[in-house]
Amino acid sequence: MTIAGFFSQFPGFACAFSLSVFAMASAGAAAQTTKPTILLVHGAWADSSSWNGVVDLLLNEGYDVRALPNTLRGLEADAAVISTYLNSVPGPVVLVGHSYGGSVITVASANAPNVKALVFVDAFAPDAGESVQSELASAHPPPPDFTIAVPFATPAGNDADLYVNSKYFGLVFASAESPEVAARLAVTQRPFAARCLTDKAPSAIGWKTIPSWFVIGDADKVIPPDILLKFAARAKSKVYHVPGGDHPSMIAHPEVTVAAIRDAASAVSP
What we know:
Layout (H helix, E strand, L loop, with lengths): L2 H6 L2 H22 L4 E5 L10 H9 L4 E4 L6 H12 L6 E6 L1 H9 L6 E7 L10 H5 L10 E8 L2 E8 L1 H8 L5 H10 L3 E2 L1 H4 L13 E6 L7 H11 L2 E5 L6 H4 L1 H15 L2
Parallel strand pairs: 1-2, 1-3, 3-4, 4-8, 8-9
Antiparallel strand pairs: 5-6, 6-7
Helix pairs in contact: 3-12, 4-5, 7-8
């Protein structure tokens, strides 16, 4: 006998069962709206797995969390991918970016009314006309062989994928990680297009109108803490420090990033 046939014999029960299911679904939907969705955007030389520790903690706390792929092809293109995804998310969003991902969320959030809070993790937070290169090159120039360029052609011209030279990965990028973790991160790094360094942020800037939080690894050797503090002060962000934290401070100390996200989520929850 089919389920439909069974219920046809007991119409009263079928009605009560349907109402019960509807009530449970409605209660579940209501519960889901009490917390914003958390969207995580990784930076250069990393991928979504860099958020694993953060994801585990957020899931345990009942958040709807998604670690999105960052295409690393250029600021406008990368922000457009995240903006498109934002359009598919109902309800409020806390948008989180690491490193270059901070530039991406700065642009992607500017015209996204469902983004209610921004969290920057050892990240760039550019103003209009600024680029990654303009913020780093003069005060903190990297070694000339810090990256290895692999050229490629595009319809718009030539570009190059930039990889961190393996001899610098554990010394600079993942300086607070164990040698084993740093070696694995170096092997699995995702390059970003060279244009990501020079692409300038447009006039619409998310952190100017959206409240923000800033996580700063106090031993960051990629974006020095003085630059991170400048970004945070300009955006009027609430700052969380990671003592001894390196550039991907959320890997060894996910609890600090989660504390900032939790704070942001609480501030925007209905």
